[in-house]
C-alpha cells in the first residue's frame, strides 16, 4: 500500500502516485487533492522503501505505522501534547522499543508522526496487507 505514497523533497506533505509521464510523475497531494507533476530531478522516495533504524535490523515504515495505529486506536497522534523532545522520544520508544537512539533523530520521529497523521487524515489506515508484504513482492506463478 505504501509503495504508491511518495515523499518529495522540497514539497510539504505526502503525495499519491497517479500516473507516469515522460520524465515525470503525476502526483496528487493527500492533503489538498491537487495534482501536480514531479520531475526526475526531484528527490522522490516511496514510503514503502523507508525503514527505521533499530538495534537489531531495520523495521519497515509500514510496521511502524501499524504499531502507531494500534497504540492510538486508529486516531491521529496529538503532536501538541509533547512538551519537549524527550517526551516525544519516550513516546516513540513505547511504539518501537528498540529504535536506535543515535541514528534516529528527533526530526525523523516528528516526520513519522506527521506522515502517519496525514495518512490517517486521508483515510489510509491499512499499512501492511494481509500477508505482511506488498503486492509487488508476492511470488509469481
TrEMBL record:
Residues 2-47 form the DUF5606 domain. InterPro entries: BVU_3817-like_C_sf (IPR049281), BVU_3817_N_sf (IPR049282), DUF5606 (IPR041218), DUF6852 (IPR049280). Transmembrane segments: none annotated. Residues 50-119 form the DUF6852 domain. This is Uncharacterized protein. It comes from Muribaculum intestinale.
Amino acid at each position: 500500500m505504501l509503495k504508491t505514497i511518495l515523499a518529495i523533497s522540497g514539497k510539504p506533505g505526502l503525495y499519491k502516485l497517479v500516473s507516469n509521464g515522460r520524465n515525470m510523475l503525476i502526483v496528487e497531494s493527500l492533503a489538498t487533492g491537487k495534482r501536480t507533476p514531479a520531475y526526475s530531478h526531484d528527490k522522490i522516495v516511496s514510503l514503502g522503501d523507508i525503514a527505521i533504524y533499530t538495534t537489531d535490523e531495520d523495521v519497515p515504515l509500514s510496521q511502524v505505522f501499524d504499531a502507531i495505529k494500534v497504540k492510538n486506536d486508529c486516531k491521529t497522534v496529538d503532536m501538541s501534547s509533547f512538551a519537549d523532545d524527550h517526551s516525544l522520544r519516550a513516546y516513540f520508544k513505547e511504539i518501537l522499543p528498540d529504535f536506535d537512539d543515535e541514528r534516529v533523530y528527533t526530526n525523523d520521529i516528528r516526520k513519522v508522526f506527521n506522515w502517519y497523521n496525514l495518512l490517517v487524515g486521508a483515510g489510509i489506515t491499512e499499512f501492511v496487507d494481509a500477508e505482511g508484504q506488498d503486492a509487488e513482492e508476492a511470488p509469481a506463478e
